[in-house]
Amino acid sequence: MMIPTPPFLAAEYRIKFAASRWEREGAKALREQVFSAEQKLFSGSDQDAIDAYAIPIVALAMLGVAADQVVGTVRIHEETPGIWRGSRLAVDADYRRIGALGATLIRLAVCSAHAMGCHTFLAHVQEQNALLFRRLHWHVLDEVELHGRRHFRMQADLTFYPPCHSPEIGFTALPRRAA
What is the pTM of this model? Predict the structure, then answer.
């Protein structure tokens, strides 16, 4: 009898600003997979005017020392001086069980904006993700409906997000190992 082989998991994941074309294209493809194909929030592309100036952040599965594929993404932008927003947080379905990816994407988003003068960091968070954000020191400002779904407008507590001055290097996320 053959024992099924578990899916490959990278030993680590690099979360950083998307610098190369393949990283930006991977982020775009992942967003369309999650928000258009999977969640059906958009028909076709989820791209909007914010993409023209937003900073894309990616989670990369590392194969040794080389990045292998984009497995998570989020974008940030400065809405008005000092007020930043995060949006389009997405993690590939095959990698969602690696709990550190979403949290580390959020951490780099807020910490890098903090380093660039952010005094208020906001996001519209889908209802199913609100608990994660609360655990990461965010609080609910109000409830809104966007794209036919319940969202919470939330704000990060910046005291828990020290400025990150090297977002092009970013952070490493390690998968949790089963005990």
Answer: 0.91
